[in-house]
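Data availability (excerpt). The following record was deposited with the supplementary files.
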Amino acid sequence: MAKYDKVLKRLEVLHPKQIDLSLGRILKLLKRLGNPHLKLPPTIHVAGTNGKGSTIAFLRSIFENNDYKVHTYTSPHLINFNERIRVNSQIIDNENLIELLEECEFYNKNDPITFFEITTAAAYLCFSKKQADILLLETGLGGRFDATNVISDKICSVLTPISMDHMTFLGKSIKSITREKVGIFKRNRPAIISPQTKEALEVIEKEVSQKNIELFKYGSDWEIIKKSREKFLMRIFEEEFEVPKPKLFGEHQIYNAGLAITVSKILKDFSFDNKKIYDGVHETFWPARMQQIDNGKLKEIVGKNYELWLDGGHNSHASEMLLDNLKKWEKDNLFLIFGMINGKEPKEFLTKIFPLIKSLQVIPIKKHQFIGSKEIQQIFKDEYGIIRPEKTIQNAIKYITNNFTGGKIVICGSLYLAGDVLKSNGSLIT
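Predicted structure:
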């Protein structure tokens, strides 16, 4: 076990028995640390249900391509915790990470605090010590009481699509979830939003009217006009731009890219070259988002007759995006390898996908409580015959390759599962 894993395990034990939704715990720790959250670079704060990580990846690529120094904070990680904290575009090294975590552990004085709160404090401490031109900050859960929402002087807020997820914490309707997400909006600071449902828009527009926020809305201030095989045409205000399609797979990534481009166009204190923006968008990579695995240990098992794809989406909106991609492959044999943690909704995720697939292998997710194959079979009794439990990802792949003649294998249902898969494949995230 790496030394930083031992520190992380100690921090997990500090988790309070009852969580009150407030920022009190992290603010108390930050005060003891010297308020590092007040000493950060200009910050762009990103919330939403789906597309947060991809949007930050596009933004990071745009800023880096224009020679800006960029810090990023994202979650969850896929393979190693270090992935969450990038300092001037580089994943933090073990030595610095351990030092930061132990400093936060010391100043926390064994007080109850959530794992996300204390590790977010460590990220602030890190970013406050290292100069950069911009900090890209992703919320963990919700927005209003999220540990990332202690930063009051952000340069803008960004909202990706909102859908049903984390209902236990955020509420059981789009409106209640949106009320939590728009909690990141700050008075007199602009907000840029992606396409949203009517219910979400009602909440967003009420919030911006109360806080004197300049809202840049999809459909009126920016939009995707046309998509072709290699490019897409978008409008920002009265100006149109032709942009090379991102390498990230899926039509939804065009909207994430468009959102990031719009952010770059409304920032007044930064200068961007259009070609460098477009090159940044095109070259963006973000793992486990309809990622084709074309080398590594698992690809060796798959062989030449199959393509292997990985997607970490885990809610109804993500399943719609996955469904759109699968429909384009209807002529191929399609196989799903599926894992989902407890508390998620497999029925919503899988119902529309079942007619397209030849088999569904259900596998466990390491170190997490997961939904088993028997539960999936109970939900989908009519599909009982094609649902099969497997103990490992390797066994699931071998079953498919031994019983069918070729096609596309898609592994999906959880970012935690995606991390297990990348680790099994011997993949590295840099």
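Summary of structural features: The chain has a mean pLDDT of 94.
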